[in-house]
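Quick one: co-fold with adenosine monophosphate.
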Amino acid sequence: MIIILFGPPGAGKGTQAQFLVNNFKFLQVSTGDLLRLEIDNNTEYGSQISNLIDKGKLVSDELMNNILDAYLSKLVENKNIIFDGYPRNLYQAKNFPKLLAKYNLTLNKVFFLNVDRELIRKRISGRVICSKCKKIFNKDIKDHEYNNHKCGEDFLVKRKDDSDETILKRYDLYIKDTSQLIDFYKSHKGFCEIDGNMEITQINEQIKGFLNV
Ligand code: AMP
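Sure, here it is.
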């Protein structure tokens, strides 16, 4: 099954994707992560990507397509994939079926996580990631997961592109492009809008319902 999970930065896409990975053996393909990997590996596009991400801008559609295509071409077993962060605009949405078809895949579900702007700001400004286990937490909401995090606080770091200014830029850009994406996908038979303001577990349940599992 091929799923797109989309929604503004901070909507909880990463958290919900982790839920699907852990419980239903999905492979999560996050284009943000693929791009950060290019930066970390100092590839020929690394510094160009780093500049764009730091400014809250999107990477060009062509470069994004090439990086995603190269990643998909290396997958051996790829039956259940959640795409997190792609497509991000109308061009990418139109390109997506062609990219999937190249690997004999078709899109089944489109989950749109819709969240209020103020809640997004709150969530992202407190967001930290563990550099060891890669789990995401919120230092302002010290929940059960945070308190039981085994690696300890020393590994918790803020993502470079999670500053307040960048958050708002990314949010505004996202909103501009999202309306077109929603229009594009709302006639898709697998389109499901989810209220991302709900508690994580409630969202998990709703997603399970949409997946019929
Ligand atoms: P994310 O981790 O999804 O929030 O993405 C972090 C940054 O990577 C974004 O702000 C963009 O600069 C870039 N990015 C991620 N996905 C895409 C995409 N599909 N197209 C272009 N740029 C992207």
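If it helps, The first strand starts at residue 2 and ends at 6.
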